[in-house]
């Protein structure tokens, strides 16, 4: 399957925990996986971890610290510019800027 035929999946929280395993599963299933990472080294390490297990995988790392609404929106715009069609969005970590002591309901705003 070439890259233009692959479905694009975006995974937040993809550098560790459940998100990394989900990213691995999506890569195994043939998706082009966009991993959101706040730290470039951790993002690249997670992409390499998947590459070792799925040599045919197609992975890219998008940097964004999801504590920042602006950074989250910028990441969404950059992904949309590269991938007009995103088949799947897996949010293991949502945009969660703290405003005072409360958190805004951010998921729908962040990914509009
Ligand atoms: N594990 C469980 O048993 C369990 C059960 C029920 C629900 N959940 C929920 O499932 C979700 C994932 O759980 P998990 O255990 O897999 O979590 P985790 O191991 O803590 O992984 C969190 C992921 O989110 C990333 N992350 C954290 N803050 C970020 C930020 N500001 N910007 C960008 N990325 C950020 C981390 O990146 P870094 O690598 O940079 O740290 C890591 O990739 C959580 O919402 C948790 O509440 C988990």
UniProtKB/TrEMBL annotation:
UniProt xrefs under Pfam families:
adh_short
Q: Which UniProt keywords apply?
A: Oxidoreductase
Q: Which InterPro entries match?
A: NAD(P)-bd_dom_sf, SDR_fam
A GO MF annotation of the entry reads:
oxidoreductase activity
Where does the signal peptide begin and end?
A: none
UniProt similarity note: Belongs to the short-chain dehydrogenases/reductases (SDR) family.
UniProt-recorded name of the protein: Oxidoreductase
What is the phylogenetic placement of the source species in the record? Bacteria, Pseudomonadati, Pseudomonadota, Betaproteobacteria, Burkholderiales
């Amino acid at each position: 399957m070439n890259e233009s035929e692959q479905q694009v999946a975006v995974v937040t929280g993809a550098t560790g925990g459940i998100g990394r395993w989900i990213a691995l599963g999506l890569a195994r299933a043939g998706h082009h996986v966009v991993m959101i990472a706040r730290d470039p080294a951790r993002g690249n390490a997670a992409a390499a971890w998947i590459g070792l297990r799925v040599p045919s995988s197609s992975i890219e790392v998008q940097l964004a610290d999801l504590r920042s609404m602006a950074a989250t929106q910028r990441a969404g715009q950059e992904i949309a510019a590269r991938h007009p069609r995103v088949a799947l969005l897996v949010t293991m970590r949502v945009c969660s800027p703290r405003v005072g002591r409360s958190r805004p309901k951010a998921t729908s705003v962040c990914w509009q």
